[in-house]
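Why this split exists: single-chain examples teach little about how molecules sit against one another. For that reason, every record in the complexes split bundles all components of an assembly together and asks for one structure covering all of them. Below is a record exactly as it appears in the raw files.
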Amino acid sequence: MIPAAFEYVAPASVEEALAALAEHGDDAKIIAGGQSLLPVLRMRLNAPEWVIDLGRIASLRGIRDGGDHLAIGAMTTHHDVGQDPLVHEHALLVSKAITHLADAQVRHRGTFGGALAHADPAGDLGAPALALGSTFVVQGPGGTREVPAEEFFVDLFETAISEDEILTEVRVPKHDGWGAAYEKFVRIAHQWPIVAVAATVRMDGDAIAEARVGLTNMGSTPVRARATEAALSGVPATEEGVAAAAALAAEGTNPPSDLNGDADYRRHLATVLTRRAVLTAAGRG
Amino acid sequence: MTATQEPAQGEIGRDRRRKEDQRLITGRTRWTDNITLPGMLHLAMVRSPFPHARITSIDTAAAKGAPNVVAVLTGADLGEGQGACINAWPVVPDQVTPAHLPMPTDRVAFAGETVAVVVARSAAEARDAAELVEVDYEELPAALDLKEAAANTVLAHPDLGTNVSAVWRFDSAEAGTGGDVEQAIAEARENGIVIEREYRQQRLIPAFMEPRSVVVDPTGEQITVWSATQVPHILRFAIAATTGVPESKIRVIAPDVGGGFGGKLQQTPEEMIAFAVARRLGKPVKFTETRSESLLTAHHGRDQWQRLTLAATKDGHVTGLKVDLLADLGAYVAIVGGGVPVLGAFMFNAIYKFPAYQFQTTNVLTNKTWTDAYRGAGRPEATFAIERLMDELAHELGKDPLEVREMNWIKHEEFPFTTVAGLEYDSGNYEAATARAKEMFGYDALRAEQADRRARGDRVQLGLGVSTFTEMCGLAPSRVLGSLNYGAGGWEHAEVRMLATGKVEVVTGASAHGQGHETAFSQIVADRLGVPFEDVEVLHGDTQISHKGLDTYGSRSLVVGGEALVRAVDKVIEKARPVAAHLLEASADDLEFSDGRFTVRGTDQGMAITEIATAVFAAHNLPDGVEASIDSEATYDPVNFNYPHGTHLCAVEIDTETGQVRMRKYACCDDIGNVINPLIVSGQVHGGLVQGIAQALWEEAVYDDNGTLVTGSFVDYLLPTAADTISFDLDHTTSPATTNSLGTKGVGEAGTIASTPAVVNAVVDALRPYGVHDVAMPCTPERVWRAINSGGSGGETTQAAAPHFDESEGAAQ
Ligand SMILES: Cc1cc2nc3c(=O)[nH]c(=O)nc-3n(C[C@H](O)[C@H](O)[C@H](O)COP(=O)(O)OP(=O)(O)OC[C@H]3O[C@@H](n4cnc5c(N)ncnc54)[C@H](O)[C@@H]3O)c2cc1C
């Protein structure tokens, strides 16, 4: 379908983009890869008067080694993040999640920042970003601020980014040597996850020293399976040991009911997928 | 008569790549939406969001004032001139058929129905203005649930007084084709086995690749209609019959059409609206639907409840079958609509020797999108029911499902065989197809693995599913259609034109929309006429070029259209014979025709048919009284349906923790008679299988309690892709059809008809140890998981879709 007419600007810097955003305010939308925004426009669920394209801002693209973290530019495509050796080395969980994200076409257009800013609870990047304790760098008229992942995701399609701000970068703390797995449960290949589990673990011999587990589509935002994480620390990486901890994965979650499954089924899936993801991350899958 | 087909000598049997594919795949061709005419205007539809409502007012003023809007028209504005959408098959004389105006004037009967059309200079401007049309509705209670609608609790069309459009019945005792089913069931209750089940055929959406599109040009002597349709000839008839425009003043062209699966055999409201608007404004117009509009308003398929009773003796010989259907027609009786369940009526008995049979369908109107033919049309439903029942019978008996089938099927030496439904199956060999399928599948090894996994209590269980299907296709003998009260015949037409340069033009009335007619028909002509494959051009889909035809559906193009073509080619040869005799100065009786040449018996003298074509074109030296043409045409009316069959075996792995179903292996051996092009056949089987598997596992059109289609996009209507399927093992046995010259049987629908029960049988087979005897379609992981944990069939689909696109984004809503 054809979107309603809009004005289009493609600023060359974040400052220009912020200025455009300030000028048009409520009437403007930012476009990154367009993989979520364009369907909205084409189905006429929304009709902004201005579309501000971040595609020409070179500084928003690419991955930098920031010492104790990787800084992923908001406009780096899923494909580029997924192929990046630094990401593979320091944040394996992100690489794992991206292999399952949509299809090749979408991965070549869609961006890391766009997907996180979109904040679909069924999006594949929220849970890994949360589990890894990422920091979101947001720039506005008043300068730059850093938002911890716990505060970034506010609700369904809602983040801590204000209307006059732009997400510029996501800082992912290095998890060198951590094993990782992303268990995504779908009915057909090109689907958003019904439930997915992002798990990354640090091993100490045969035991799990530390684990981080993020859940996708188990509530209106990505959530951490805190009870499972706590129960995993020091546990031998065996089926039984992990299963007991994984049984706690759905605690405190509030999953949706839809065509693909009701909330009970999702809670059940979360426990099964958590067990599998943790075992795989621990090299026992 | 079963043998593996000999390797191809000539064109027939060669795996030719399709000559049409380059243009179809690259899109550098005339899809309807690619057509642009000078001064062409664009349409956008204003559609009802409510399933049932009175239209109290329509305010078009704002839309009319929008930039470059030429007109905004309502049903009342168009009045009688808009014609009507016809039902070609009133299945009973007193069928209740709601009047179907393309654009209603006072009341909408399903969500998505058009209430106004905006005409503008560009498609974007038309769309923008459509949002400015203000329609006031007074909502009416809607008939949504099929069972409730059948009980007339809420009326879909209050003025009709009932939702029941028709009750159609066949009874073998009444028809004299078999015994009394009630008696058979009573006896089995006393001293045999009775299997009683209720199955749901969920609603499906054909989801063809190219959305529907129509262009109408009223500026010539003829009004030309280009449409992405399967049925240009039927469309022309329907437009003429309902608008009063003489048929001779209408030209319908189906240019290249991107798929249909039955979904484009409709005469659509959108086509009629475009026709009416073009005539009224005197300007060419175009309407191309969006994908959302396509999913919402193009006709849907299936949607039945099936109540089934099978009677058998204690040792497993079937004695009777009783079928009681509820079929959801949607808001209107579509062109074939009510006939779809009737097409299944003759197929529930399938390949088995039932002594007694009864079928009844109750066709019900609801306030949902209309339903009509979708790949298989009536026969997938029948095949599903009987093949599920045969597995249930086997389970009851503790026997292998293939063994029970073999006890009951028609043996190869019994053909031709007249069934309890009154059809005469001409040929087949179920033993041979089954043996070959079992061999490809590794049946015994998989059974052993299944036993092992069960014994180990493995998390992943294996299930094996069987489907030994047959179907009736090659629609259809006109006399039979007449006896069923169908509004038209079932013949097909072909014409062969011998051009002066030695090229050959073939015209067929079958209207291809992706099947490969151009290639297969070229092969037939090349062989029979002895001309190079490349020199044959196949023309179709334009009522001025192919002036007679009944189009493509029901696996009919090759077996009916191909036979017409064979007969036309044979006439060309016979017309050429006296000319050849004259030019070769021989007696016609001494001429032999082979490999494209007439030769004089016992000499080395001869002449190519293409040379004769040139000589006839020049007409300098023709025998007296012979016309200057060897072009020929033929119309062929089939004497019988056509009965392909096959054995399909499917293995699935079920993750019992999550309910996930994974295809492990799929092997099928189809008997479709002689094969013209094995590559095209494989393509038809592959695509057909995926569509049938998709019904079993993935696809379902779901409405919520408000009558809104919640699977309104491909985010929620789960259409599989290559990533979701496995490689299939295909083979064929060959029992040539005895009712056409080429010995061919239809293959367009076979895969879809056969595969659905094979998959569901496999799923149920895997879950038998958990006390599961049915899983409702689609067998979603959630349903399978619930079945494992409760022993039931998994329950209904939740009526909600998850949003992935934020509707609250930004400001201007
Ligand atoms: C067919 C299909 C399948 C998909 N499947 C999946 C899947 O399986 N898993 C999955 O996770 N995702 C999936 N997606 C979504 C995909 O990940 C998108 O790339 C992502 O949601 C949006 O990224 P984008 O760069 O395209 O952002 P856009 O669509 O351009 O923008 C999305 C939203 O974020 C805002 N925004 C974008 N960038 C910024 C920024 N820097 N600062 C502030 N706001 C910003 C926009 O204004 C808009 O509201 C799928 C998409 C499609 C089309």
